[in-house]
Design goal:
The structure holds two protein chains of two kinds. Chain A is mostly helical. Helix content of chain A is about 70%, strand content about 0%. Chain B has a two-stranded antiparallel ribbon. The chains are: A mainly alpha, B mainly alpha. At the A-B interface, helix 1, helix 2, helix 4, helix 5 and helix 6 of A face helix 2, helix 4, helix 5, helix 6 and helix 8 of B.
Chain lengths: ~300, ~375
Amino acid sequence: MTTQVFHDSASDLSHRARQFGGRAAIYGLLILWAFICLFPIYWTATTSFKMAPNVMKGDMIPWVDFTPKWLGWKSLGLSPDTIGKDSTVRAEFAKRFFNSAVISLVSSALAVMLGSLAAYGLSRFSYKFSWMKNSDILFFFLSQLILPPVVLALPFLVLYKELALLDTRVGLILLYTLSVLPIVIWIMRDQFSAIPTELEEAALVDGLSIWGAFLTIIVPIALPGMVAAFILSLVLTWNEYFFAALLTSTHANTLPVMVASQTGSQGISWWSMAALSFAAILPLIVIGVVLERYIIKGMAAGAVK
Amino acid sequence: MSGGDLLHVVTNDNISDARRSFGRAIIWGAAAVMLATALAQLAQHLGWADFGFSNWRPTLYGYCLWAAALCWGQVLIRGEQGKRTLFVLPAALFVISLTVFPLLFGLVIAFSSWNLSSPDGRQFNGLDNLRQMWADPFYWNALQNMVWYCLAILVEYAIAFALALALNAEIRARKFFRVAFLLPLMLSPVAVSWMIGKSMLVIQPAGPIIRMLRFFGWENPSFYSSPWMAKLTIMMMDAWTFIPFMMIMILAGLQSIPKELNEAARVDGANGWRAFWEVTFPMMLPVSVTAVLIRIIFKLKLADIVISVTSGGPGGATDTVTSFIFREYRDRSNVGYGTLLAMVYLVIIIVVMTLLMKLADRFARPRT
């Protein structure tokens, strides 16, 4: 009896072949898209080390096609041999960078604070402001998301002019907080409604006040959600261009405005543009790589109810 | 969300009358201060008296004072209830003062001719702006472009869904792919428009994409000279930045589908394709609808890329409403007309989004 009783029939084998083909297709798609996502970043990074002829010939790979030079970074005052010297461009860049950092950090922090409080209140108590119930209030907050910035832009331009807030950081911070607040409330409401109310009830029985319970018990639990909301706001405010272009001129310019204003003047020196763009996106690339988990968590929060 | 609080608190508030009246006093006192400042400033503005104000900031400070007094007064007057109100009140005050007031103000501006650079100041001109808008082919063109841009979302959605499915499969190096796919979303649209829109597409003989297209036999590819090509290029750049956003929402939805469902479909003899259309896709409808709606909202704000790459050209073919109004203001600094255009846009958006949400609700509900 040496005949094999169980053997793979032809259909089983074809199944395996198809599965292999499927996996290859999946990996092919993934690698193709990863390439599409990463190539522009790679291109910017390498272009900042090129010289004019390298750019015009379209050399791709450093040390093989061309020898990297610090030309682009030198024009920003950030190359090794200029870093010690005074540089007006670097001072300008540092100022814009600082503006961007202050504006985005403060407005995100403010939005997370206001938004978490509101979201917590709406998830726990029932309010009644004249005819507005909880769901109306929530809708009022979330409906701000639909409001296109262009509607607010020109009235704010005039108002800020009268209030002497034009070209100030405070003015931009207020607007940015407003623009990310609905997103924060959306994320945080989801977080808070996932926390059981028994926790606060126990704390209240133990003698804490509502605010005490919120600050000492709920906030630590909801902290990951708050970090997610904060980072998402940070990304949006760091990259904002429209309001910044309209409402600032010399003092409170942010990095995107600086990047955009380079293009017009005296032809484009690609290498210094590349260096500037790369310096502008680098902080967010770092954040994206390190804190990817939180960003995904934040964006996924509203999707699945 | 009806039928009382989720969190029941029993407190005995012993609020004395003195405390209550003190609370009222600070609210009304602060309101009086604010009104007095505003009136004084108005008087100066109209030229009746001179108090030496150089701008309207004192009124702003008065408003902030009143807002703070209102919050504090809530606690003083209503005790425990007031403390609860304090959770929502700051955000509500913030949003109301920063949207409702400017919107009302914008309505006034919208019906006036106001050139910020001319010394005449604001002049009420009735429906002139509306008439001008009616005859402005560029505005209608921009609105039409928005429809095309929004239609492109369907393609973005298909790509995002495919990527989410691939990421949800059992693969190695998932973390790497997730980070790589997320990165475009983190980049500033202005930098993106430089990196892709200019550097990779414009440098004539040597831009990488140009070389690739030439390799495939397209002689002189130019991206911004013909209207449709320019529009497509803008669409693709915008898609590049925002596909990760939809992808992550869809991925979250995919991960919340229980595995048993797909296994059951397999056992019942459905192959991959059918299982997708009859199990996965219907299950994903609510998430998909949310993702697409939010994407539309973001798409309606599209401006940065257009402003910095084509500034609307060629011949307005890539204009979005936002970029058009931005240029309208930059070129002629006419605040009145621009505001009217924006207001009309807002009305259109509200009507369309309400209809879409109603439709989406009806479309997605029976299957959930």
